[in-house]
């Protein structure tokens, strides 16, 4: 056990040093996102990351997204505005690149386990980015809160790590059936999950 603890400590020091160097390099850069790491009261690593969603496909849909990891669980909280009333899909797509006016630069659904598109938790399979649908009222706002232990923030496990991916909000509804992306229509808002 002592060995394992010492290894963990060594890794922490290396990680902390790497973070410091990164901070120095980016001190003068304008940062859209921030990641904070703290220890919570149970002495578990807690990480937090937040970023904005920008309008795409000539929409006026914007939003804020926060990811927080506590122990093995990651919670996403997304607040959107400027949407049409009704049901909209929200997914994690594979690249943190929102540069295209229609958001297609973010690629397809994030699917590191090579499963079919589907409803989260479905036995027939689903993508790690298949968050699902949410409802929007007449005021054009919507909120999504989603918690899972199948994601992590910066753990380096390709089947779980959300870093470098993107959040996409769609004009339409995910039917959970159509391949490869649920026929959810155009991409109306996009934000990269980056430090
Ligand atoms: Cu999508
Ligand atoms: Zn999917």
CATH overall fold name of the largest domain: Immunoglobulin-like
Q: Estimate the mean pLDDT confidence.
A: 87
Radius of gyration: 18 Å
Approximate helicity band: 10-25%
**Ligand list:** copper (II) ion, zinc ion
Total count of domains = 2
CATH homologous superfamily placement of the largest domain: Superoxide dismutase, copper/zinc binding domain
Form type: globular
Strand content: 25-35%
The CATH architecture of the largest domain: Sandwich
Query: What characterizes the major β-sheet?
Result: 9 strands, antiparallel
Characterise this structure.
The protein is mostly beta strands and 195 residues long. The chain has two domains: 1-30; 32-192, Sandwich (Immunoglobulin-like). The chain has one helix and nine strands; from the N terminus they run αβββββββββ. Strands 1, 2, 3, 4, 5, 6, 7, 8 and 9 form a nine-stranded antiparallel β-sheet that branches. β3 (62-70) and β4 (73-81) form a beta hairpin. The two termini are 33 Å apart. Mean pLDDT is 87; it is low at 1-31. The chain binds copper (II) ion (CU) and zinc ion (ZN).
Topology of helices and strands:
Elements: H1 2-26, E1 34-39, E2 45-55, E3 62-70, E4 73-81, E5 86-93, E6 132-136, E7 142-148, E8 166-170, E9 187-192
Antiparallel strand pairs: 1-2, 2-3, 2-9, 3-4, 4-7, 5-6, 5-8, 8-9
Bound molecules: copper (II) ion and zinc ion.
């Amino acid at each position: 056990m002592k060995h394992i603890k010492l290894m963990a400590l060594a890794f922490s020091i290396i990680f902390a040093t790497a973070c410091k160097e990164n901070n120095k390099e980016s001190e003068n850069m304008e940062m859209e996102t921030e990641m904070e790491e703290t220890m919570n009261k149970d002495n578990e690593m807690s990480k937090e990351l937040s970023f904005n969603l920008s309008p795409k496909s000539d929409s006026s849909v914007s939003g804020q997204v926060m990811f927080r990891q506590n122990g093995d669980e990651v919670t996403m909280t997304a607040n959107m505005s400027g949407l049409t009333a009704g049901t909209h899909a929200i997914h994690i797509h594979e690249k943190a690149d929102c540069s295209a006016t229609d958001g297609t630069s973010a690629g397809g659904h994030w699917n590191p386990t090579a499963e079919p598109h589907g409803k989260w938790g479905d036995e027939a399979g689903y993508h790690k980015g298949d968050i699902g649908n949410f409802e929007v009222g007449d005021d054009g706002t919507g909120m999504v809160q989603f918690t899972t232990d199948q994601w992590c923030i910066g753990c380096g496990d390709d089947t779980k790590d959300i870093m470098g991916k993107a959040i996409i909000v769609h004009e339409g509804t995910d039917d959970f059936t159509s391949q490869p992306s649920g026929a959810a229509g155009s991409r109306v808002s996009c934000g990269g999950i980056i430090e």
